[in-house]
Amino acid sequence: MTDSDLEPIGSALGHPLDEKRKEAVHDLYDLPPDILQDAKKLGSMTLSYQLLRFYTASEVWPWLTRFIDDVVQSGSDLRTWRRGGFLFPNLALDTLVEHDVGTILSVLNPVDAERWLQFGPNRHAWEVEESVSGAPAVERPSLRYDWVEPPEVRRVMSSGSLDLVEMIDIAVATRRWMASRIAARCLRFGGIERFGDVGILFASVFSRHRLSQDAVIAASAALREVHELGPTDREVPGFRGPPTWYR
Q1: What is the average pLDDT value for the chain, to the nearest integer?
Q2: Whether the Cβ atoms of residue 65 and residue 80 lie closer than 8 Å to each other
Q3: Burial of 201 from C-beta contacts in 10 A (0-12 / 13-18 / 19+)
Q4: Which one, 17, 27, 112, 204, has least CB within 10 Å?
Q5: Which positions ≥6 away from 114 have C-beta within 8 Å?
Q6: 90 — alpha (psi -120 to 50), left (phi > 0) or beta?
Q7: Same domain, yes or no, for 61 and 130?
Q8: Helix (H/G/I), strand (E/B), else coil: 167
Q9: What is the pLDDT of residue 160?
C-alpha cells in the first residue's frame, strides 16, 4: 500500500495514519478503540479495509471483510464478535445412512461431560432438506472468529433466538434426525407414505449404499410414524413417535 493510497484515508479522518503502529495488531479482538472508531468514521468499505490492513498483520487479513460487515458497519460488539457457537455434523444423507451414531457424532470431537443438544425440528427447513433441522449438536463457547470449520462440521453462531434443547439420550436424538432426513429425501419420490417397508424404501432411495443398523432403526420408526399416526403437513417426520420407537 503506497502513500498515495493512504492520502484519501488521512483526508477523510483529518489526521495521518500512525506509522509507528503499522501492522501492530495480530488479533482483531485486540484492535484499539481509536482505530475501530476511525474505521467506522470513514463510512466506506474500501477505505475501512485499507485502514485496517495498514494497522493489522497479514494473518488477520482474511477476516477483515467480515469484520467490517459485522463490527464496523453493523455495530456488532467486538468483544463477542464470532465467539462461541453450536456445532453439528455436516454429513450428506448418502453418507449419514452408512454410519452408526457413534461415528456420526465423532466428527464433533466430543469431550467427557459435554452437554448434548438438539436443534428444534422446523417444518419449513425440513421441507427444503436443510440439515440443521433436528440435528444433534454441542456448544463450544471458546470458538473464535478465526476458527475454520472442518468439512464434516457446521457451525451455527450463538443466539438467544436459537431453538435448542438438552438431550439425555443422544442416540435416540440422532436417529430421529436421521429419520427426518430420510423422510425429507422421500419427498422426491412422492413421500415416505408411499413405501410399505424399509427394504423397499432403501432399495428405491439408497440403492447404492451400505446401510448402518442405526439408519434401519431410524427409517423403520419413520415408517411406523406415518403408518400408525397418519401423514402430516405440519409436524416434522422423525419427531412424532415415542422414544421407544427409536431405540
Answers
A1: 94
A2: no
A3: buried
A4: 112
A5: 138
A6: beta
A7: no
A8: strand
A9: 67
User: Do 103 and 154 belong to one domain?
Assistant: yes
Quick one: cell of 214? Answer: 442405526
Same domain for 241 and 148: yes
| Residue 79 domain flag | no
- Residue with cell string 413417535: 241
Percentage of the chain exceeding pLDDT 70? 98
Residues 36 and 103 in one domain: no
The identity of residue 186, as a single letter, is: C
| Residue 41 DSSP SS3 | helix
Same-domain check for residues 108 and 219: yes
Residue-wise pLDDT tens digits, 132-141: 999 999 999 9
Q: Which residue has better confidence, 146 or 1? A: 146
User: What residues form DSSP beta bridges with 167?
Assistant: 116
Spatial separation of the C-alpha atoms in residues 67 and 223, rounded to whole Å: 47
Full residue range of the structural domain in which residue 48 is found: 3-73
Do 120 and 232 fall within a single domain? yes
26, 50: one domain: yes
pLDDT (tens digit per residue) in 209-221: 789 999 999 999 9
pLDDT in tens, 82-104: 999 999 999 999 999 999 999 99
Cell of 70: 459485522
Per-residue pLDDT reduced to its tens digit, 39-66:
999 999 999 999 999 999 999 999 999 9
3's grid cell: 502513500
